[in-house]
């Protein structure tokens, strides 16, 4: 029987028989850490220290959780060192593979299959992937649903096939970021207006749906831009309307010319829950302060997802408004850009220049202040010198 108790802000588990056996036998086992309440120290199984009294022992999925509960690392077994994370990642990968199968187990069964309690499973899964197993399972169901809808299944059949209990869950949770009908139809029944104008980065296409700006594309050729829009919304009724979109287009062009300019655009953002988390993080990046894919992955609590972050950047349809151009490789290289890496480099250069210019002005201001301060000092200084 496992149970969990509250300890400060953290929940921890009393030790189960299998783990206790490992500890008593001093077998190295990196799948968990244990804390000793009487000493406030945590160890890995296999620690050469004296075996603690069992009732004082609590289990943690890993070292960070033990620290979060206020325990300190043992000096003898160095429970923070290397291996455990790799082990934990493998465990969670196995669980993720099970949940991704065609006939996924319940979360409880998945936890048991990888030898974790529901509680540890939950914590470890979240720490490694950034989402709870439940969220992960829901995202997979949404993905299956999307595939089935694209394959042309009837909406109600697809919903049940994908593992959702009822259509209201799908609509209610906003699983798809749009209604199932509109995914299947590639925008069928939607009216999308677009306009094209020149900018300092070439031609800009802006498209709006009833909900807001749904696409901003950059390119050299109007026909290619229109084709991009058609690929994104194949079944929508797409109409060019430069007049109606004049104001929006002007705002977007201003934004492309100077990404630091404040604009007030309502965006119709369409993507998976993960993509939207990445895009939200991007919108928090200041102009001139690019981040790496890894940093965005960490910022959304999903440190192993740098590649998925890259994919989400590549899936962005709203150039500059969702500033995926501010994400670069670890070595500072611009990496890829949906609208051409040359445009990305140019955007980054402009933003860096603008930032340097702001810093220069701020310096000028502060040195003017210093000069003022110095001149008011002067009589005193003279007095000291005299
Ligand atoms: Zn120890």
From TrEMBL:
Q: Which SMART domains match?
A: HTH_ARAC
Which spans of this chain does the record mark as coiled coil?
none
GO BP, one example?
A: methylation
What EC number(s) would the UniProt record show? 2.1.1.63
Keywords carried by this UniProt record: Activator, DNA damage, DNA repair, Methyltransferase, Transcription, Transcription regulation, Transferase
Pfam families in the record, alphabetically? Ada_Zn_binding, DNA_binding_1, HTH_18
| Catalyzed reactions per annotation | a 6-O-methyl-2'-deoxyguanosine in DNA + L-cysteinyl-[protein] = S-methyl-L-cysteinyl-[protein] + a 2'-deoxyguanosine in DNA; a 4-O-methyl-thymidine in DNA + L-cysteinyl-[protein] = a thymidine in DNA + S-methyl-L-cysteinyl-[protein]
According to the UniProt entry, its GO molecular function terms are: DNA-binding transcription factor activity; methylated-DNA-[protein]-cysteine S-methyltransferase activity; sequence-specific DNA binding; zinc ion binding
InterPro entries referenced in this protein's UniProt entry, alphabetically: Ada-like_dom_sf, Ada_DNA_repair_Zn-bd, Homeodomain-like_sf, HTH_AraC, MethylDNA_cys_MeTrfase_AS, MethylDNA_cys_MeTrfase_DNA-bd, MethylDNA_cys_MeTrfase_DNAb, MGMT_N_sf
By sequence similarity, the record places it as follows: Belongs to the MGMT family.
Listed name of the protein? methylated-DNA--[protein]-cysteine S-methyltransferase
Look up and give the organism this protein is from: Vulcanimicrobium alpinum
